[in-house]
Write a structure and sequence with these properties.
about 650 residues, alpha+beta, Rossmann fold, four-stranded antiparallel sheet, 18 helices, 29 strands, globular
């Protein structure tokens, strides 16, 4: 009997065949149709116009074709991620994904003929065939899209310039076949959600990082005396193995978090059956020497991590290990190190990949090669989706204001995350470090200049698991040094899995700030983890860092260990987490009820019992999570002691055949 997956794929094939038969090359009259506006997007407040783009400089366009079967991937994802559904855990293959999302032959033919009509003879398509890449002079791109490109500079990072157009057009006959063309209107610049305290410091890519002995205070840089720079407090010595002896709030070590979340004594048994990954953008680079120093000090049994990280460069992503004076001034590598410190120290020895995606360098008009000023998330997604083997957990600590991103771009990226989820990947992202928005910057980017809470992207995507940050231990509370991001999307509707939970939270607000947020939007974060004063090495210097950049990889590491329990018992990994989290997994989280996501000159959203828009459902309890996951995967109570290996526990087992890992 054919599965529902195969039936849908057969249906997809029949659609392609019927459209191919019906489709015919456009007539000259169609091709001559005057261009009609396809998309318009205002320049975000963080960018300023420099001048016209050089006409002869090269640019690489990414043309996203309309995918067949709209909503099919998302429907598959909801079914295979729902523990109550018969298809739970039955992930799709890369080939099945391609069959679902590939464009019609008609769309492909029309777009390729349109390119040829404009004298463009060379292009390439991605594996699914839904993206066409072609390189041309900016002047030719302006002719193709009936637009004008300009150079824009980021107001905070003056070295960052991009070539963008405020609007673009297509012939009317292509409007139903082309979803987006970038780089055009998107100013998405994914910044790291990292906050550094003390040490040698800088700013590259992070949010509100202390820079070279300076502290940001309400929009201006304020000098800090030398004795205020961090001198890391000594670790507690010989005080026992209880939480109070291991943890201190201003110096959070890997052992502290492993003890807090119950993973300290767990030894992975199926590390060769999965892998984990982090993402890096804006020329952030994992500095392997710093990783070695970190592990030597805080997790000596994992000191070989730096020798085994799979360092991947995508579209010119920087893998250089030498820090120049410029890189030091920009603190390049700090964000990348923070992610690896947290995920690797939690999930060792599960193999780790670090993706480094190029993008948004200073624009050099004299270059004869296309500048990689396109959208790094699209580049990264295309690369990962093009691989036959994908990690089981991916942590990403980068984001930007949702309204800097055209809706079509956000939807395309979010759809890419859905494809990863359908293949069994847990995508974990940071919620941001600005609460509901930066004070003084909470106006809409639609020309109306209305006051509005500013959502973060991709934190607002329904197909990722978003992580907020906490501090302290018994109990954990929401961070106050910075406000952990939280709120509601203005682009994405509340997903089905949130319906039993989120409306109750919105009702509990009793209309407070209702004019500032979309009560029907996707609420975030989903969960939380420590992210206030984590130990951190950069450029050979020990310091303390925080932000949701620390929280996301920490939570991702715990999920990788839950997957290890599942895999060692012959079960599938968790994949997309949220339907399971909202239905059952929340019972394995510790509720965080103190704090808020203040910003926009308000106190934002409050933490409270149950789900809230500051800490989600709370922080992980490893043992409870894996027990719930085992029960969810087969409907049993998880006590049969079955094992994916030799059937034995890793030692010190309890009556269930599993070790007491806490």
């Amino acid at each position: 009997m054919l599965s529902s997956t195969h039936l849908l794929l057969l249906h997809t094939l029949s659609i392609i065949i019927s459209r191919s038969a019906a489709g015919a090359p456009p007539s000259p009259q169609k091709r001559a149709t005057a261009p009609l506006l396809k998309e318009h997007h205002l320049v975000p407040r963080s960018w300023t116009l420099v001048g016209p783009s050089p006409k002869t400089s090269l640019i690489q366009l990414h043309i996203g074709l309309v995918q067949q079967n709209p909503g099919a991937i998302e429907q598959h994802l909801l079914e295979i991620s729902d523990p109550s559904h018969a298809r739970y855990g039955k992930f799709l293959t890369q080939q099945e994904i391609h069959a679902l999302v590939g464009p019609s032959e008609e769309s492909t033919n029309l777009v390729e003929e349109w390119l040829r009509d404009h004298g463009i003879a060379e292009w390439r398509r991605n594996g699914a065939g839904d993206v066409i890449h072609c390189t041309m002079e900016i002047g030719k791109a302006e002719e193709l899209l009936n637009t004008t490109y300009s150079t824009f500079r980021h107001v905070e990072d003056e070295g960052v310039e991009v070539q963008r157009a405020m609007e673009w057009s297509l012939p009317e006959f292509l409007h139903d076949h082309v979803e987006l063309v970038q780089p055009t209107t998107s100013f998405f610049r994914p910044r790291g959600e990292e906050r550094i305290r003390g040490g040698s410091s800088g700013g590259g890519g992070g949010e509100e990082i202390v820079m070279a002995g300076r502290r940001k205070a309400k929009g201006k840089r304020q000098e800090v005396s030398a004795d205020e720079l961090l001198n890391p407090p000594p670790q507690k010595e010989g005080g026992g193995d209880d939480l109070a002896s291991i943890c201190q709030a201003d110096y959070v070590t890997p052992d502290c978090k492993r003890k807090l979340y119950g993973t300290m004594n767990y030894v992975p048994r199926a590390a060769d059956k999965q892998s984990i990954a982090t993402t890096n953008f804006l020329n952030q680079t994992v500095l392997l020497a710093d990783i070695t120093l970190f592990m030597q000090k805080f997790r000596p049994d994992a000191v070989n991590v730096s020798d085994t990280i799979n360092m991947i460069s995508i579209d010119g992503g920087d893998l250089t290990q030498t820090l120049t004076e410029e890189k030091i001034s920009l603190k390049k590598g700090s964000e990348a190190n923070l992610d690896v410190h947290n995920i690797a120290s939690m999930a060792h020895p599960i193999p780790l990949t670090a993706y480094h995606t190029g993008g948004m360098p200073p624009f050099q008009p004299s270059d004869s090669t296309p500048r990689n000023t396109n959208e790094p998330y699209l580049d990264w997604l295309e690369y990962v989706l093009g691989q036959e083997q994908v990690p089981s957990v991916i942590s990403s600590s980068y984001g930007d204001d949702e309204d800097t991103v055209p809706r079509s771009y956000a939807e395309r990226v979010c759809h890419g995350f859905a494809q990863l989820g359908a293949r069994g990947v847990s995508v974990v992202v940071s919620s941001g470090d600005r609460g509901v928005g930066e004070d003084g910057e909470c106006t809409t980017n639609d020309g109306s200049n209305r006051q509005r809470f500013i959502a973060r992207f991709p934190a607002s995507c329904p197909w990722v698991t978003t992580v907020g940050a906490t501090k302290e231990f018994e109990p954990e509370v929401c961070t106050t040094r910075f406000k952990s991001g939280g709120g509601f999307s203005n682009y994405f509707d509340r997903p089905e899995y949130q319906n039993p939970t989120v409306p109750d939270y919105v009702s509990s607000l009793k209309g407070k700030y209702s004019e500032f947020f979309n009560a029907d939007g996707r609420g975030y974060p989903d969960v939380a983890a420590q992210g206030n004063h984590d130990t951190h090495y950069w450029n050979g210097v020990l310091s303390v860092a925080g932000g949701t950049s620390a929280a996301a990889p920490t939570f991702a590491g715990v999920i990788a260990l839950v997957n290890d329990v599942l895999l060692s018992n012959g079960r599938a990994p968790l994949g997309f987490l949220n339907p399971w989290l909202y239905a059952k997994g929340f019972q394995g989280l510790t509720d965080v009820v103190t704090g808020d996501s203040g910003g926009c000159e308000t106190d934002g959203f409050p933490a409270q019992e149950g789900w809230d828009a500051v800490s989600g459902f709370g922080t992980p309890r490893f043992r409870d999570l894996w027990e719930i996951a085992l029960k969810s995967s087969d409907g049993s109570d998880g006590s049969d002691g079955s094992d994916g290996g030799d059937g034995s526990s890793s030692g010190g087992g309890d009556s269930s055949g599993h070790e007491n890992y806490s």
